[in-house]
Amino acid sequence: MNLPERTLAGPTGTGGDAALVQAYLNHVRVEKRLADRTVILYTLDLERLTTHAREAGVALKAVQNAHIRRWIAQMHGGGRSARGIALILSGWRGFYVWLGRQGLVDHNPVQDVRAPKAGKPLPKALGVDDAVQLASHQGASDDPALEARDACITELLYGCGLRIGELVGLDVAASGSARGWIDAQDGEAHVLGKGSKRRSVPVGRQALAALEAWLVQRAAWAGEDPALFIGSRGQRLTPQHIRVRLKRRSLLAGLSTPVHPHMLRHSFASHVLQSSGDLRAVQELLGHASISSTQVYTRLDFQHLSQVYDAAHPRAGSRAGQAPEPLDITPTPRPPRSR
User: Fold this and answer.
1) How far apart are CA 253 and CA 251, in angstroms?
2) How far apart are the first and last CA of the chain?
3) Are 49 and 24 in contact (CB under 8 A)?
4) DSSP, residue by residue, 240-286
5) Contact 43, 35 (CB under 8 A)
6) Distance CA 295, CA 107 (A)
7) Are 162 and 191 in contact (CB under 8 A)?
8) Given its phi and psi angles, is residue 70 left (phi above 0), alpha (psi -120 to 50 degrees) or beta?
């Protein structure tokens, strides 16, 4: 498509554009009372827009939809993220909405322009060795009760794939008011998940042993709170407290990445799927209402297989995006023919 080209001159030139931008920034700062940080970001976005318009030879009021699409394509081709482009478009869109309200433009060139689709990020999961290292870590310098409690928390998060809300909701024993509890005899955790849906999850041998060790220590702290996981004052732990303790444990265990509770849930799902290949079972264990929520772990599983392939297969270098092995095309000399 041929874009209309106009020379920047007179009232529509760079001076006019600068005045429009400044008037808009004054509007968002004074009338809309946006935060200083937001105004700075808008300023940067409009400086970028002004630069593109100047290079294309058009005034800001004369920018067309095709100009915007071209500039977005250039930014995307230059490596800017889809999220970054979406934020820039949002800033430009607001500017042209304001120009329209002032009667300075008769259309918004950004109106129907969308940012490129952002790829859905993969959940962060630990490798099997790192997960086992974290669960097996013993903090010799810790108070025995703290160590037993943190070890039990880690085993349940990784061994059962619990959400942090499900974990903090566990009580010592089943009751009519309990959101969740662990039946050690049957080896099952009964939890209240999203949407107030209850589910039962198997509890492994290591987690049951950690639970038994923690209950011995818990008796010294126990108050009236029925919570399974409590602090030294006998009160139920908060999610934030558990996040801090788990991050500390991962650093003491020598892991390169600080671990948060949901990372252990991702690790649980990924490792079970790698071993079993049963997506439906993983869905049930996680308490996902839809199989689509669980399918992201198939991408993690394939990523793991790809890494194994790249490291082990002698022909892995010929995969897409990697340089193929050079071929030996030197002709083999033939023996002379006998006459």
Assistant:
1) 5
2) 71
3) no
4) HHHHHHHHHHHHHTT-SS---HHHHHHHHHHHHHHHH--HHHHHHHH
5) no
6) 42
7) yes
8) alpha
How many Å apart are CA 246 and CA 258, to the nearest integer?
Answer: 8
Q: How many CB atoms lie within 10 A of CB 212?
A: 12
Burial 126-135 (b: 16+ CB within 10 A, else e): beeebbeebb
Residues contacting 261, CB < 8 A, separation 6+: 157, 163, 164, 167, 239, 242, 243, 246
* pLDDT in single tens digits along all 339 residues of the chain: 444 333 333 333 445 889 999 999 999 999 988 888 889 999 999 999 999 999 999 999 999 999 999 999 999 888 888 888 999 999 999 999 999 999 999 989 998 888 887 666 666 888 889 999 999 998 776 789 999 999 999 999 999 999 999 999 999 999 989 999 999 999 999 999 887 889 999 999 999 999 999 999 999 998 889 999 999 899 999 999 999 999 999 999 999 889 999 999 989 888 888 778 788 888 888 888 877 777 766 665 555 545 544 565 455 554 444 444 443 434 444 444 443
- CA gap 9, 23 in Å, rounded: 19
Instruction: Give the tokens for residue 199.
Output: 């589910």
Strands (E), the chain: 170-171, 180-183, 188-192, 198-202
Residues marked active site are found at: 163, 194, 262, 265, 288, 297
Residue with tokens 């990697």: 322
Q: What is the pTM of this model?
A: 0.57
